């Protein structure tokens, strides 16, 4: 997904599936790694609309059935940056088999 971009490149603004906007990091901050915003990996829902879960601090991909699935690239980022005991809860969701 292309962001709207900000002049200095340190931040970006993206439009989510519900037409709300989300301020996020700029593309330089994730260069060289997969990122759900700037460089998604090749996963089954990579082209699905994104939904930011502010209550969980989690980016989801919304499948064609309207179910939110944790974005694998967001989960990978959490695996790199969080303590292992804090990671598992982010992947828990009501899966319908799309991911």
Question: What can you tell me about this protein's structure?
Answer:
By secondary structure, this protein is an alpha+beta fold. The chain has one domain (11-91). It has helices at 72-81, 84-87, and strands at 11-15, 21-25, 50-53, 58-62, 68-70. It has a three-stranded antiparallel β-sheet with strand order 3-4-5. The protein is globular and about 40 Å long.
Write a brief structural summary.
With 99 residues, the protein is α+β, with helices and mostly antiparallel strands. It has helices spanning 72-81, 84-87; strands spanning 11-15, 21-25, 50-53, 58-62, 68-70.
Topology, pairings included?
Layout: E1 11-15, E2 21-25, E3 50-53, E4 58-62, E5 68-70, H1 72-81, H2 84-87
Antiparallel strand pairs: 1-2, 3-4, 4-5
- Pattern of helices and strands: EEEEEHH
Low-confidence stretches: none
Fraction of residues in β-strands: 15-25%
> Residue share in helices?
10-25%
Mean pLDDT: 88
* Largest sheet data: 3 strands, antiparallel
Q: How are the strands of the largest sheet arranged?
A: 3-4-5
Give the quaternary arrangement of the chains: single chain
Count of runs of 4 or more consecutive helical residues: 2
Structural class: alpha+beta
User: Cα distance, first to last residue?
Assistant: 19 Å
Q: Which outline best applies?
A: globular
How many domains make up the 3D coordinates? Answer: 1
C-alpha-based Rg, rounded: 13 Å
Give the total of beta strands: 5
């Amino acid at each position: 997904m292309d962001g709207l971009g900000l002049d200095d490149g340190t931040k970006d603004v993206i439009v989510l599936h519900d037409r709300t906007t989300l301020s996020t990091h700029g593309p330089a901050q994730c260069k060289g790694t997969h990122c759900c915003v700037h460089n998604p990996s090749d996963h089954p829902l990579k082209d699905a609309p994104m939904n930011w879960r502010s209550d969980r601090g989690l980016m989801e991909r919304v499948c064609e059935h309207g179910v939110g699935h944790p974005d694998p690239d967001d989960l990978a980022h959490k695996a790199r940056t969080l303590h292992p005991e804090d990671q598992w809860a982010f992947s828990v969701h009501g899966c319908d088999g799309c991911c």
